[in-house]
Specification:
Elements: E1 28-37, H1 38-51, E2 56-61, H2 68-82, E3 86-92, H3 101-109, E4 113-117, E5 137-140, E6 144-148, E7 169-174, H4 176-193, E8 210-217, H5 225-236, E9 240-245, H6 252-263, E10 267-273, H7 279-286, H8 289-294, E11 298-302, E12 310-314, E13 318-322, H9 328-332, E14 336-342, H10 344-359, E15 362-364, H11 366-369, H12 374-385
Parallel strand pairs: 2-3, 3-4, 9-10, 10-11
Antiparallel strand pairs: 1-7, 1-8, 2-5, 5-6, 6-7, 8-14, 9-12, 11-15, 12-13, 13-14
């Protein structure tokens, strides 16, 4: 069903004014969510879930490294596979370009089923260099799942564990939404291998009270699903919009939605990177800072480490967290998935975490921003012209 056919759900009285958000019919009730910060919290929770697996482990990631973090996960996957658990792994060929063949072969030798998404093969017709699997999901036994921005790489580990301490957000979910994430995994697996496998777990089993829609961009269908949900929520906002946006190249409709929110009296705060792992994208993003600041959008530069989070909270009622960036590539090329959540507790917690990060960041002021070197202006214009590639 297309987003234009969404109907509004009349929520229980406990949800108060939340009814002004629109959710699709595929939305599931009865989910329990836990927000996880960085690899410091996400990795132990994910590894514990894998260790407890009894039937299936499905891991899908854009980046898989053969480093400290990668070895932690490979050891966990191998251990479960050797105990008879059906373990399947999907990794993206470009995101994991430097992954050694020996690392993958060791997984296969132990019984892990491995799918390399769109291998690098320029000699093949239509080999789809630009179409990548950017999702980061883990589903265990069809009932416990994880998704967000965290890949499998030691850059997400804290410095005291030998990592780079990248700032990111992930979420643990129990309930029907976990089953929906498992179905997405199976769709990718079938589309590339032609093989089906049975799903485990109970799609209607409830563990909490959160209303969740698993919003996924497919390769060709429902391409704008995540973006439309975000636009709708910003347009319906009444008090505050906060976001952590690692890669932010907003098109005209996104900018207008933000500007209109500010004009209505909504406070809009966006956490943006001060240090980026992809400088070209950062320059293209900075091209818009002057316009955003001029229209009252508040920008805050996260200091020190790389900001990699992709999350929004609106009015402490609606939240979205996942792999989706505000860029052209996420919109038209990548496989992405976000959890759109209608829950006061979770949305409030997400807003508090982002607000706390904002308090530790440097607010970008318009007058100061306009004093940046001319060389920066040139680079911003150059990479803005190339924005469709990002």
């Amino acid at each position: 069903m297309e987003l234009r056919d969404w109907r509004r759900l009349l929520l229980p009285r406990a949800a108060g004014r939340a009814g002004y958000f629109a959710f699709p019919e595929e939305t599931t009730r009865g989910n329990r969510l836990q927000l996880l910060e960085d690899g410091r919290e996400a990795y132990p929770a994910m590894l514990a879930a894998i260790a407890a697996a009894r039937e299936t482990v499905h891991l899908e990631t854009y980046i898989l490294r053969a480093d400290k973090a990668g070895r932690l996960f490979s050891d966990a996957l191998i251990e479960r596979a050797r105990h008879g658990v059906a373990v399947r792994l999907i990794f993206d060929a470009v995101g994991s370009l430097d992954l050694p063949g020996s690392f993958v072969q060791a997984l296969r030798n132990a019984g892990v089923q491995v799918l390399e998404y769109h291998p690098v093969a320029p000699w093949r017709p239509r080999w789809a260099w630009g179409r990548r699997d950017h999702r980061k999901t883990l589903v265990v036994d069809g009932s416990v799942a994880f998704t967000g921005g965290v890949n499998i790489s030691e850059v997400y580990l804290p410095p005291e564990q030998g990592g780079s301490g990248w700032r990111d957000l992930h979420v643990r979910v129990e309930g029907p939404a976990a089953y929906d994430l498992d179905r997405l995994f199976r769709q990718v697996w079938h589309s590339k291998t032609g093989r089906w496998f049975p799903l485990v777990g109970q799609p209607g089993e409830r563990h909490g009270h959160s209303l969740v829609h698993v919003a996924a961009n497919s390769e060709f269908l429902r391409r704008q699903l995540i973006r439309r949900a975000l636009l709708h929520s910003i347009r319906r906002s009444r008090r505050r919009v906060v976001g952590a946006v690692a890669y932010f190249i907003p098109d005209r409709r996104v900018r207008r939605a933000l500007f209109s929110a500010v004009k209505r009296g909504v406070r809009v705060d966006l956490l943006v990177p001060e240090v980026s792992d992809i400088p070209a994208v950062a320059y293209a993003s900075q091209f818009y800072y002057d316009t955003l600041l001029s229209h009252g959008v508040r920008l805050h530069a996260w200091p020190g480490t790389v900001l990699h989070a992709k999350a929004f909270a609106v009015d402490r009622l609606w939240a979205s967290i996942g792999s989706y960036n505000i860029t052209n590539r996420s919109l038209v090329s990548n496989l992405e998935v976000n959890l759109n959540v209608l829950d006061r507790g979770f949305a409030g917690r997400l807003e508090e975490v982002i607000t706390s990060d904002i308090a530790r960041s440097r607010e970008i002021k318009l007058d100061e921003w306009r004093k940046r070197p001319y060389s920066e202006l040139v680079l911003e214009r150059l990479f803005w012209l190339l924005r469709s590639w990002f």
